[in-house]
Known about the structure:
Blueprint: E1 6-11, E2 17-19, H1 22-29, E3 36-40, H2 43-52, H3 57-74, E4 82-91, E5 99-105, E6 114-117, H4 128-144, E7 152-156, H5 159-174, H6 188-198, E8 203-207, H7 211-229, E9 233-235
Parallel strand pairs: 4-7, 7-8
Antiparallel strand pairs: 1-2, 1-3, 4-5, 5-6, 6-9
Helix pairs in contact: 3-7, 4-6, 5-6
Amino acid sequence: MGGTKYYAVVNGRFSTGIFTTWEETAKQVIGFSGAKYKSFPTYQEAKEYYLANGGAAEDVEDLLQKKMKELTVNSEDPASTLVAFCGCSAHGNGTLNCEAAWACVFPNHSEWNVTKKMDDDEKPTNNRPVYLAALEALRRANVEDPERDQVLTVFTNLEILVDSMTKLAKEWEENNWVKSDGKLAKNVDLLKLLLDEQKNRQVQWKHVESEWELSCMDIAKELAQNAVHGSGQFSSDE
């Protein structure tokens, strides 16, 4: 299942900026001789192209804020539900120069959103940032609901995290973190923290599937991508 495409329109018939549907883009470029545009799989790439070709910075920042507001409006869950989307961005995975960031997005409570670039001592890879985002989701849930009465739903596109937290981690823990193939489990330090924060709370770990879920995940990934390339940390309640 594919994600959102991003169309950077530098010269358009009526307006310019970054659009997320071909329908919107076509109105600006089809039949317009001076049109200049390009599609990208990520918001960050579209943003870089747009700015490099003379686009205004406020145009692309407004899009991200607009999409975040739309997520709250289009949420399929009641406002009382604890729902978090955990995304990441990593460059240079497997190298000493790997840079990674994570984002934890709460569509029903945008003031809880957190984005952070990983420090070198946090051992950045392409998977560890998602574990840290999930840890933030659990910690925020425990702050807002210390009695742990509410169900927390954590969405991610990392299947190993879902599998680990629904079954495997408990098995590995009981076997001193040795897997069935005799090898040591990965990211044990973060799995221990996740299991500890999850205690006494019902948590639903889900892999993204629906259109709304994919839209939310796109936002989380975009925020993480911005953190890798930009300021490094963002919190809506600061």
